[in-house]
Amino acid sequence: MRLQKLLGIETPVIQASMVWLNSAELAAAVSNAGGLGVLGPNAGRKNANGGIASTVEDFRQEIKKTRQLTHKPFAINYLLPIEGVEISFQYAEPLLEVILQEKVNIVITSGKDITKGERYIKRLKEAGVIVIHREISPTVANSILAEKMGVDAIIVTGHEAGGHLSEHRISTLTLLPQVTDAVKIPVIAAGGIYNQKTAKAARAMGAAGVYVGTRFITTFESPASLNTKQAIVNVLSQELVEINTPAGDVRVIATESILAGRGDSEVGIIKKGMLDGDHLNGVITVSESAGGIEEIRSAKDVVCELSFAFA
Ligand SMILES: Cc1cc2nc3c(=O)[nH]c(=O)nc-3n(C[C@H](O)[C@H](O)[C@H](O)COP(=O)(O)O)c2cc1C
């Protein structure tokens, strides 16, 4: 109940941030079902045109749209700047401004080294924002560091997860109990959680809630293309492959683009593959859980099933 109280939600089921694959409709559906919806990078956008100003303005509009669709709490994913990635520093300030101006009160920070984002976390905390931190490559040590830095909760992601993979090959099953033993703040489990059994396992290992990505791509409300949702429903876990991209390794479905060796060029390939449904040129990045997902369902159904683990 600690996490529910902290966030003002009924059930500790959090829809994960997924670049291009979040929207006001999905976030509101999850929040209206009692969980916590999240707007991640490029939420609600359909094209990659425009510079920083227009991307940030679109983000503001998506926040406003979400507020029209739900009166319940929802969160924003704020990417902490990553050393060596110039563009991440260019977006950091304008995005923070929007979050503070729009008075969003729950922010999920994610990054590769929390110490690099300390000043941004401090500003969020000073503004009274609840901060949940997700380290891309979590360890017991960096979880303790996040707690010391004053974040309110952390998300611990196992190697099963979709999106950019942790540089450490540690599964949710082994990492999560080590972290829940090591910190006092609520720990939210991510990576491979897609049904009631996996959510129950996370709870048994001490998780206060679950952070779920791939399962929410295969919902009616997700902006992913229909052929992407069907590809996830059809794929088996053993058919997934890992590829290298400039931003890190990702696990993907072996679509035509991957078989032709075209998958590793740039991050825009997620938009091409998953939003536009162009499986000849883009990629579909998913979690190992994709093999267990057998149908497209409503976001409300998914929240409801996972919530039983915390009843
Ligand atoms: C298509 C896709 C895009 C993602 N994009 C982001 C992102 O922009 N920022 C982020 O912090 N995590 C991102 N992630 C990771 C998710 O937030 C989450 O940690 C992960 O999906 C949890 O594992 P699961 O897919 O097994 O549920 C992405 C995941 C997927 C599948």
From TrEMBL:
Keyword tags: Flavoprotein, FMN, Oxidoreductase
KW Nucleotide-binding (keyword) present: no
UniProt entry tagged with the keyword Flavoprotein: yes
GO molecular function, one term: oxidoreductase activity
Pfam families: NMO
Protein name, as recorded: NAD(P)H-dependent flavin oxidoreductase
InterPro entries noted in UniProt: Aldolase_TIM (IPR013785), NMO (IPR004136)
